[in-house]
Structure formats: structure tokens, C-alpha cells
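Session log. Operator J.P. requested a structure for one protein chain; no other inputs attached. Running the standard single-chain path with C-alpha cell output.
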Amino acid sequence: MIETERLVLRRWQDADRETFYTHCADPDVMRYFPALMTRAEVDAAIARQDGYATTHGYCFWVAEERATGRMLGFCGLKPGAEGTPLEGGVEIGWRFGKENWGQGFAREAAEASLAWGFANLPVDRIGAITVLANSRSWGLMERIGMVRSVDEDFIHPAIPADSPLNPHITYWKARP
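Structure written below.
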């Protein structure tokens, strides 16, 4: 568990499923993903994160508001996706319900996740990927000190090459 001024980053619980499903069924939240997620896909995503936490000691943790205990979204670290420039490394990622956008929660969670990663993992850098059009996401990457690696822009292997969700761009944050 990681605590910040306003957040607790923690492992997933069964009670998180409904809120996460609501986020993943929202077209605004999922705008830069291939499709809205079904309940079965949400369950599989949570199971993957639980697996990462068990195997690696980290995952995309639930971001919970300390004052209310309300799930806001997720943020954390996971093994870099296969077939991407992050493969073999550590990836940071986040997704928050749109009612929680613009309040600094993602930045607070991302900074805490990066700090945890550099304090606990033997890595020289942590990466992130997003769709070129997702300026909110890569804007946050830049605000937390990540730098774009233009030479590592790529066509995501899980998305058709001609999709508007390609190309993907790559950012890295070096160990401070």
C-alpha cells in the first residue's frame, strides 16, 4: 500500500469491480482504447493485476480517495507489454473515472508510483505508452518528468495498424 496526501494506492478488492466496470463502460474514459470492456474483460483485467502483484510485487493499483474510501481509478506499475518498446521493462499506467479528471489525482498517484518503483525496483527507467491523440495522457507524462522517445513510436501489436489508435508514442522517466 502506498499513501499520499489524498490517496491510497492498494491491491484490488471485490468491491472495486463495479466502479471499475463503470469506468470501462464509459465511452469518454475508453476513448483511446479499442473498445468498451465487458464485465468478463474487467474481471480478467483485475485478475491480471492481481497476478502481477503476486508475481512481481506491483501492479496497476486501485487509487482510493483517503478521505472517503471511494475508488477513483487505478495507477501503478506493471511489466512492459510484449511487442512494445517497454517489453522487458516496467510500465506506469493510469485510468480514472471522468468524474475524477482535472483534480490532480492522476498526477499524485503517478508521482507516488514512480517514487515507489525507483525505491523498490532495480530499474534505471520506467516507461509509458499512449496513443498520439491522447494529449491528456502524454501531457501528464510530461508533467511528471517523462520524456518522449520519438525513435520508439510504434504500431501497437494488439491494435490494427490502420486504426486511429495507432501510432503509439513512448515516454521514459530515468531514475533520479
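Operator note: The CA atoms of residues 103 and 157 lie 33 Å apart.
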